[in-house]
Amino acid sequence: MALAAIYLRLSRNEEQLNIDEILGNHRSALIKLATQNKLTYDVYQEISSGVNNVRPQLNLLLNKLVEYDYLLVMDIDRISRDNAYAEQIKTMLIAHDIKILTPQGAIDLTQESNEMLFSFQAMMANFEYKQIRKRLGRGRLAAAEQGKWVMSNKAPLGYKKGENQRLVIVEDEAKIIRHIFQRTIERVSANEIAKELDTYGWRSRSGKILTTSHISSIRKNVVYYGVVQACRRVNGRVVDEVFVEDAHLPIVSKQTFLEVQKILAENKSGSYFNKKKATRRLQNLLYCSCCGRKRYIQTDGETDFIKSCSYKISNNTCKDRGHKYLPVEEFVLQKVKQKKPDFEVALEKLKNLDTSNEQHKLSTQKESLIKQMGKLDNRQKNLKIMRMDGEITKAEFLELSKENDNKIKNFIQQMDLINIQLENLNNTEEEQKRIVNCLETLSRIDQLQPEDCNTFLKTFIKKIFFSTNSTADHNTRREALHVTIEIEWV
């Protein structure tokens, strides 16, 4: 008994309808069609746009075409609404002698008239898609003019979709937005703001850390002062645009938003934010051994102190006691100086490695592989042409294609291995330069300015975990316990 592949695709603009009912009806119709033609079948179904060429179920089906004799679909546009991709699929179906069955009739692509019919129906499906998209775009702009949020299914951070598709403030998220705008007005950089948000434990809606990229996007989004903005493009050109103020309650005022835009514009003249320079060698490297959070340094009179830790952990506050900063800095610098012999040994090993001959050999092998893979790609194209012209049978095509694919896979594996080996050789040279630079800097580390020293330490120190092993309280006379300092090297 012949085997058929049933492909079911629900369009994105049908998603608002009853998905199960639509797919159920389509499945029943195609299973009935398979039964009438005495076919056994496998079912592939997914929700995707017809112009989307990255469809997991369709790609899985196409990779297994060798197993099937028929393809059952409700209509040609369910395969693809993209002309070029539809032609690629048609070529694959012809190469594998696959016949198409629809409730409207059969399409045998080996017949010239049916092949033309397939191409014509694919072209009409593409035209219909463009018309639907145009109507949807106009409807989207009409909804935006009424103040509705139609930019995406997701509301931006700080809002949720309320009745009639209007945005409603979510206070727990809105405080993040207000903080970002306020700190920007105070000329705090996106990098510093991101660190503050992480310290407060404020996250995105999905629980992810808010990065500088998120912050930059938020600061330029007009939605936060009550605006709904939308546009319609044709061939990449804006042909219609909507900009509605007071569409919903703002999280920040229009004045605040415009002030922030002015500050952002100043970046072009180089007077953007007052960036905080490192004033101490271990700045932004100290972390609490108890709770894992960052430890901060403050000045009391003329003495620098590592502040007591006061972060909350599961409703309990971390109370690791503060400590004088200078002894901790001296300890860390001493540990760093002790790394010098390790650097020297590593450098000597790298210097004794002569990689020039190996690099030339690998490069020659890589060029040869590239040429051979090019020949195999051309051979695969020729096999498809020979199959379409009837010069070879389906069995011969499959056998030759399989042999060709195996050679290509083997060459790809060889290429990956060579690329890894070349990368390792290049890394060896870069590593030598890095170690030499480290040794030079290490010899004069005591003379480095705090900012330069801080930058240098961050190249090979990830974190310095510190604890006084005592609880912060008002008893200043008690004897302090021995502190713990652990360095996490990069």
Automatic annotation (TrEMBL):
<dbReference type="InterPro" id="IPR006119">
    <property type="entry name" value="Resolv_N"/>
</dbReference>
<protein>
    <submittedName>
        <fullName>Resolvase</fullName>
    </submittedName>
</protein>
<dbReference type="GO" id="GO:0000150">
    <property type="term" value="F:DNA strand exchange activity"/>
</dbReference>
<dbReference type="InterPro" id="IPR036162">
    <property type="entry name" value="Resolvase-like_N_sf"/>
</dbReference>
<dbReference type="GO" id="GO:0003677">
    <property type="term" value="F:DNA binding"/>
</dbReference>
<dbReference type="InterPro" id="IPR038109">
    <property type="entry name" value="DNA_bind_recomb_sf"/>
</dbReference>
<feature type="coiled-coil region">
    <location>
        <begin position="408"/>
        <end position="442"/>
    </location>
</feature>
<feature type="domain" description="Resolvase/invertase-type recombinase catalytic">
    <location>
        <begin position="3"/>
        <end position="147"/>
    </location>
</feature>
<dbReference type="Pfam" id="PF07508">
    <property type="entry name" value="Recombinase"/>
</dbReference>
<dbReference type="InterPro" id="IPR011109">
    <property type="entry name" value="DNA_bind_recombinase_dom"/>
</dbReference>
<feature type="domain" description="Recombinase">
    <location>
        <begin position="156"/>
        <end position="270"/>
    </location>
</feature>
<dbReference type="InterPro" id="IPR050639">
    <property type="entry name" value="SSR_resolvase"/>
</dbReference>
<dbReference type="Pfam" id="PF00239">
    <property type="entry name" value="Resolvase"/>
</dbReference>
<keyword id="KW-0175">Coiled coil</keyword>
